Request: fold
Amino acid sequence: MNTTRFCLPVKASIITILSLVLSLAMSPNLSAQLTLDRLDSANRANNANQTKRDPINIIDNIWWVGHSEVGAFLVTTPEGHVLMDSTDPEQVAWTVEAVVKAGFELDDIKYIVNSHPHEEHIGGLAALQKLLPHAKIIASEGTADILASGGKTDFRNILDTEGARFFEPVKVDDTIGHLETIEIGGETLTAHLTPGHTTGTTTWTMEVQDKDGKTYNAVFMGGMSASGVDRGPLLNNELYPEIKDDFERSFAHLKSLQCDVFLYGRASSIELDNKLAKLDSASQNPFIDQEGCAWYIEYYEKRFQKQLADEMAAR
Ligand SMILES: [Zn+2]
Reply:
């Protein structure tokens, strides 16, 4: 997939854009009526108490444009930008504000991609699609299906109706496969399909340069949490029969990646605040964190293996 030049819409003022996105974000929708019960307790507390953040220039041309806990990333290039994730419908306006505050034009967002189709990460996509009709929404096939259904085809929402969280459906413009790329402004973002947490979970990689002039591989993790026995069994899961094999393949693939800059759309997972505190003073950019990356993969692989062992023991 190569860089494409788009016809840009008539430029609205920032105030008009922000008021539009705020009204979209606040319009009644199904997800707003639902609770945050889906998430584990730590995430639930973090989601409920989220606050706005100023945009953070993580490294090179990568920006955090998410909130105190849930993230969205902006990759900027001279020929347009890529936005990764939206955050949820109630807070997507903050993401838009952060992009503007970082000094970038909303009209220059050419592609919108995502980590995985759970509401707190992508629930604001429908609002973004209305706000930025020129931006192409790109997703894996598995994710495209879930986005189009507003979360109704996500196995967890079917198995766990009480905790289900739906969102306004989104039709993607194009799908992307394993190791396919988006090329824009001299940057290459590679999609790595790492299903398990959802059928469409996608990890993204790109190269960045730090102040030392060296090149590092940035990995935007797609999300690797196993679902918990009650919310999605790993064995005999009729709605997602490949779930165990997918997780195993995804962990193996993640371990094969060179991961220097460890990124994920959760501030707590990547220790965003600790790293932010050191960002200006440390001799090396603290987001260069190979250990953090290895920790993330090992932590979730162990949890996956424990769930698998528990299910086998219960047979
Ligand atoms: Zn998730």
Observations:
- DSSP finds eleven helices and twelve strands in the chain.
- The chain has one domain: 14-313.
